[in-house]
C-alpha cells in the first residue's frame, strides 16, 4: 500500500467523525429554532446527500457529486426556513474540508481527474456564496444585515477549515516524501554504481586486485625490499590487503604503535624515517608511508621498507607519490562496494533465518506434534500404522534438526572482537557436538585481521565443508586447520568419511558454491581424497605472500595431530547453537 493510500485511510475516520459532529450540531440547532418536523425533514435530506462522501469517499464521480449535493441542501434548507437563524450553515465545514483534503492529493494518475479535484473547493465555495447571497433581497430589511453577517461568518469558517485540511494533507505528504528521500537517494546511487561497475574494465571493484596493482607499482621503486597496502578495519586497526616481500613479513597493523603510520593517516602527507613498519624487520631500514587520500579522506596506506637506510630521499618520495597517484579513489570505490555487498548479504541471511524460524520450522514442529497425537490415539492392534507413523516422526525430527543447523549457520558471523579462526572453531565444535563427530582443531591466528568481507567468505567455505562432512560423508572424525597470517590464509577441513564418490548431489552443489566463494576472494580451492578414506577441502588465500614455509603441519590422524589437538581443545569450551526447543 502506498504512502498516500495510508494517509487516505487515516483521514477517513476523522472525516466521518467531523460529518457526524456537524450533523448532530445542526440537528440540535434546527430542533431548537424550527421545530422537530422541519429539522427532521432537512436533516434527512442532508443525510442522503452526505451518504456518498461517507460510503464512497474515493469515487471519482459520486464523491464530488455528494459534496455538491451537501452544499446545495444546506443552501436550500437555509432559504426554506426564511434565512435566519441559518441553523444549517455550520455543516458547510464538512464538504469544504473534505474537498480541500482531496485537492491536496498529488498522486492522481489521471490529469483530468486531478484538475477536477483541484477546482473542487473553489466551486463549492462559489455555489454556497452565490446561492446564499443571491437570496439576500428576499430577507426583510430588518434582518438583512444579520443574515449577511451570518453568511459571511459561516463562509469564513468553511474557508478556514478548507485551508486547514489542504495544509494537513500537503504537510503529511511532504513528511512521507522526505522520509523516503534516503531510500530514493540510495536507490539512485546503487543504480549508478551498477551502471558504472559494468563499464569498468576487468575486476576493478575488487579491493585485493587493486591493492595488488598498487603493491606491484610500489615494488618497482628502486631500493624497495618490502611493500604492502593497508586499509582501515574495525577496532582502530589496519588490515593487509596485499604485500610484496621475499620473506615472511609481520606488518604492524596498529597505527597507535607506529608513529609513521599514525602521522601519515592523520596528516595525509608522506612520512619517511628509520622506524620499521613491520614487527619482523631486523636491522637498520628506511621506511616510507604514502597515504591514499580520496577527496579529503584517508582510505589506506602504502607501507614501503628498504634495507638501505638512505634509500628514500626527496626524489624517491616524489616518485612514490606519483606512482600511487589516482589509486586512492579506485581503492575507496572497491572498499565501499565490498562494504555494501557485505551488509546486504548479512541482512539477507538474517532475513532468511527469521523467515525459516517463523515459517517452515514452526510448521514442521506442529506437524511433529500432530503425529505424536495421532500415535497416542491409535488402537493397540494398529501395529503397521504405528510403524509408519514412527518412521514419519523420525523424518520430521531429522528435518527439524537440519533446519536448526541451517539457522545456526545463517546466524553465524565472524565476531569483530574475535577472529576468523575462533568463529570456525566455534562452528566446528558446535556441529561436532550435535552430530557426534570428534573434532580436532589446529588454529594459528595472529593479531592481524583480514578484510571483513574476506573473513565472511572464508567462514562460509569452512561451514559448507563441515556441513558436507556431517550430512553426506558419514564421518567419525573431523580435522580443521586454520592458519591466518594476513594476507596469507589457509583453511583446511578433512574428514574420514566415505569420500567424494559417496557425495550426494546436494553435497556436490555445495562444492560448486565453495568454488564460487573462493574465486570471489581471489583464493584457490582444492578438493582431494584423504587417505585411507575421506575428503580434504582446502582454501588458500595469497599463497605467494608466504614463500618461506613454517614447520610442516602434521597430517590429520597422526600422533603430532593428536598432541596438537589435546592442546587446542583446552582453549575454549564448545558453544551450542541458540535455537528454540520445539
TrEMBL record:
Residues 566-582 have a biased composition (Basic and acidic residues). Keywords: Kinase, Membrane, Transferase, Transmembrane, Transmembrane helix, Two-component regulatory system. InterPro entries: GAF, GAF-like_dom_sf, HATPase_C_sf, HATPase_dom, Sensor_HK_TwoCompSys, Sig_transdc_His_kin_sub3_dim/P. The chain crosses the membrane at residues 12-33, 39-56, 116-134, 146-168. Residues 546-557 have a biased composition (Low complexity). Residues 546-582 are annotated as: Disordered. GO terms for molecular function: kinase activity. Pfam families: GAF_3, HATPase_c, HisKA_3. Residues 453-545 form the Histidine kinase/HSP90-like ATPase domain. This is GAF domain-containing sensor histidine kinase. It comes from Glycomyces tritici. The lineage of its organism: Bacteria, Bacillati, Actinomycetota, Actinomycetes, Glycomycetales.
